[in-house]
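fold-stage: in
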Amino acid sequence: MPWTLNVSHRYPVSADALFQAVADLDQLDHVNRPLLQFDHLPSGPVRRGQVIEVAVSLFGLFPGAPYRMRISECDAQTRVISTVEEGFGVSRVDHRIEVQPAGAGAELIERLSFAAGWRGPVIWLWLHALFVVRHYRRLRFLRRSA
């Protein structure tokens, strides 16, 4: 049974600035720490067709587990990123990221659909918590860099 997680957060920056931050792999590393740590994560913006193979560790305490992200769409004009991911206990994740103008700022909308077997409810809760932490870390970063 596939699981779905829909998350949206608002930020006090332009949609273009938010998309730039979301598309940046250095920023991905920053907003995930300390909960998730990536080994072998490249630097810079993602690009369509890119395949990113990393090792992911919970809290940096456990050995890294293989994880692959394939960027199937990355469009700065429409501010959309789509990935197909696998690993770390999940057989497939379809992840769609959209950034839209919202009032004086921007809204980040993320939709994840994943297959994780019996681990689905635990992974759904973990992802929900991770996305809340990411939001606050990204918000702090964007406020500092504005």
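fold-stage: in (second)
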Amino acid sequence: MKLPAFVPKDLRQLARFVPTSGWDAIEWAPLLGAMREVSTRYVTGRGVAGLRDRLSETVPEIIWVKKLRGAERLDRVQEADALQTAGDAILQLYFAQWLNDDGLFIDLRTVRFGLDGDALHYAPNGLWIRLRPEFREGMVALYRSFYTDDDRAFDKALKQMGMLRPGMSEKAEAELKGLLYRHFGIDQRAQTFSIDTFKASFDELFAFFIEHDYKLHSDFIFVGFYLITLYLTLEAGGQAHDVRAICSQTLLEA
């Protein structure tokens, strides 16, 4: 798909992870509207300060800043212990933002983070989105169902997000659940991250959506972008993370 000229480079880089045929499974009007909004925020910085202030207390391990002045950019850090601690905090941030109805910053790439001694700094940019409440709440329910092994809650969350549709065959439903679990179900106690593995699951999901004539809201695409930036950063850090414990502390105890 050829994106409109107003879409900035950083957003285009994320859009490249969507398979070419996958754009046919997206509702165009909401997508273009959301792309325009996010592109405007990226250029103008509109809403960044307010959202940053509202989220700044969600993860005590992270100091929210306007710019990374005086901090060593995370993509230049080599020490394994520092990368482990930083990666754990970024995972906390990833999960914590789901609890905020005002919006979430989707750019978790290494260039947005820096270390000043032992302190991890985060300088979010204008790539933020406010998801529809039912979709955001569905994602929270989805993750909670993974970590409580609650199949009934898993089904309810997928229906809330518009993933499970009425009239689906048992075979199609089982296939979709497996695909979504592999895509979102980061539940290991010592997980390393691979963007290639993530991309493969993204491709499989879109192949399913195309085959079954889905028309997805743009929320799904932006959630994909959010996950892409997380995977890129944690893959670059090269550490294994106890995702189950971090998710439990952040979402189940909230």
